[in-house]
Design brief:
Blueprint (H helix, E strand, L loop, with lengths): L5 H14 L4 H10 L6 H8 L7 H18 L18 H13 L8 H11 L3 E7 L5 E5 L9 E2 L4 H8 L3 E5 L2 E10 L2 E9 L3 H4 L2 H22 L4 H6 L6 H7 L6 E4 L2 E8 L7 E7 L3 E9 L4 H19 L4 H16 L5 E9 L4 E7 L5 E4 L2 E5 L4 E2 L12 E4 L4 E6 L1 H4 L10 H15 L3 H15 L8 E8 L10
Helix pairs in contact: 1-4, 2-4, 5-6, 5-9, 11-12, 12-13
Length: 486
């Protein structure tokens, strides 16, 4: 799209605005959300042709109108004051993506930083990636040179805010004009991508933002893929050595966060370097979500073996198509046969019908799951009780619950509620419920809620836990609510 004169741009924006089915107040709200700095009266005066706005403010107004037109699929668009980059992956942006794909085909993990920088040059920006450490406290630079520079705290930097909120955020200050773009693999947060640009116009370019998001998505996938066959990227994220039980459990875990359609699940284990008896698993399909959390007795390598055995048996039974009864029975028999009836594990099995929200669950001696609705804990799920795994099946009962749209399900191990402070006070169920209520009211997404919960438990326990603490949080949305209206 070529750049029109200022009067032509005003006329085209006004025409587009008239087709956008927005009031002036609604248009201004969208413009303000894009960091527009002029008031409603100034915007109305510009639309009426009696006043002017700075060029980049006109472009923000055009972007606000165009985003609305995208929603209602009107073919014409308001013009910008300059020639924009394409908003679909072709030309330079496609070249950058192809460069990353082809460059990593036979590349060791350590080469990814060079490839990221080269991809940025193809679209005229300076790319540099930062990976989150496994403690989710700092963003560490992935450097192509020998001097990576200092890490950035997640809780006190703009880059950290982009990571926490999963938003593309601009930085425009002395010596720093860039975009901070979340690095994700699916919905799992991997870090952030910094995109340094030359001027303010480029910083506001919606086409560039789209290109950066595509690149960041691909980099996130590549980080996860390349970590599977080399240690170079893992070394950036791992700030402490892991114990043998810790390595055993971490090697078996699924991605910490995943989602399909309206269902998102996210988990975390602490201490991440020395976890022994806790573990979790899940499986997501087009129709069903299966969740599993386990806590093996003890805090040593034997506990890790029990948890690993439970995890492997659960996957074997699940992949064979067995339901909750049979999954629990097979784990019970496997633990008993391998370790004797003096050792056991507590666990929760959950099955959610993604179309209806119908949930079935079994609780094998584990802390009762919590159900959050409307931003607060509304109940503990007390059904489906049976003996701990390894102690015999006994009577098998399946609990049932009907989820409502946007319900949150919270599974956790007793290391969360039994964390003690210096005075011996437990973190406790009441503090857990209050924390979840406050986080929900703040609007944090599930991965950020879980990250903040573990930080709160660590703070309560003076920074170091004596028992494994694990959380698995899931949110269900009725798929009918995901269908665009109109």
């Amino acid at each position: 799209m070529s750049a029109p004169d200022r009067g032509g741009q005003q006329r085209e924006i006004l025409l587009a605005y008239r087709h956008a089915d927005l009031t002036a107040e609604q248009l201004w709200t969208r413009y303000f959300a894009l960091r527009g700095s002029h008031g409603l009266m100034a915007v109305e005066a510009y639309l009426d042709g009696v006043a002017e706005l700075p060029r980049h403010q006109c472009d923000l107004l055009a972007q606000a109108v165009n985003e609305r037109l995208d929603e209602i699929s009107w073919t014409r668009r308001a013009p910008y004051s300059r020639t924009l980059r394409p908003s679909r992956p072709r030309d330079d942006s496609l070249a950058a993506l192809v460069h990353l794909l082809e460059g990593t085909e036979l590349a060791p993990p350590e080469r990814l930083a060079h490839l990221v920088e080269a991809a940025g040059r193809l679209i005229g920006v300076g790319f540099s990636a930062y990976l989150v450490d496994y403690a989710q406290q700092y963003l560490h630079p992935l450097s192509a040179s020998g001097d990576p520079g200092p890490p950035m705290p997640i809780d006190s930097t703009l880059a950290g805010r982009a990571f926490r909120s999963l938003e593309v955020l601009p930085a425009d200050s002395a010596g720093s004009r860039c975009l901070w773009v979340p690095l994700v693999d699916g919905v799992e947060r991997i870090g952030v991508l910094r995109a340094d640009v030359a001027d303010e116009d480029t910083l506001q370019d919606p086409g560039l933002r789209a290109q950066c998001r595509w690149t960041a998505l691909l980099i996130g996938h590549l980080v996860v893929l390349m970590t599977q066959y080399g240690d170079g990227l893992d070394a950036v994220r791992r700030r402490r050595g892991r114990t043998v039980p810790g390595e055993l459990i971490w090697s078996l875990l699924p991605p910490l966060t995943a989602g399909v359609d309206g269902f998102v699940v996210t988990g975390v284990l602490e201490p991440r370097h020395a976890v022994a008896g806790d573990a979790f698993d899940y499986s997501l399909s087009d129709t069903t979500a299966l969740l599993f959390i386990v806590d093996a007795v003890g805090h040593d390598l034997r506990s890790g073996h029990i948890a690993a055995t439970a995890l492997a048996t659960h996957r074997s039974a699940r992949r064979a198509g067995y339901g909750l009864f049979e999954q629990a029975r097979q784990i019970d028999e496997t633990i008993d046969a391998a370790f004797g009836n003096a050792l056991f594990a507590t666990a929760v099995f959950v099955e959610v019908d993604l179309a209806t929200g119908r949930m079935r669950y079994i609780n094998a001696g584990h802390p009762e799951p919590l159900l959050m609705r409307g931003g607060r804990v509304v109940k503990q799920l007390t059904g489906g009780r049976r003996a701990a795994l390894g102690l015999g099946s006994g009577e098998l009962v399946v609990g049932e619950e009907q989820l409502q749209p946007d319900d949150w399900l919270v599974l956790y191990t007793d290391g969360i509620t039994e964390a003690r402070n210096g005075e011996g006070e437990f973190f406790g169920e009441a503090r857990l419920a209050d924390f979840l209520r406050r986080e929900a009211s703040a609007g944090y997404p599930p991965p950020e809620t879980v990250r903040r919960l573990i930080q709160a438990v660590l703070t309560h326990h003076d920074g170091s836990l004596q028992d494994d603490a694990t959380v698995l949080l899931a949110r269900w949305t009725d798929p009918r609510d995901l269908i665009p209206k109109g």
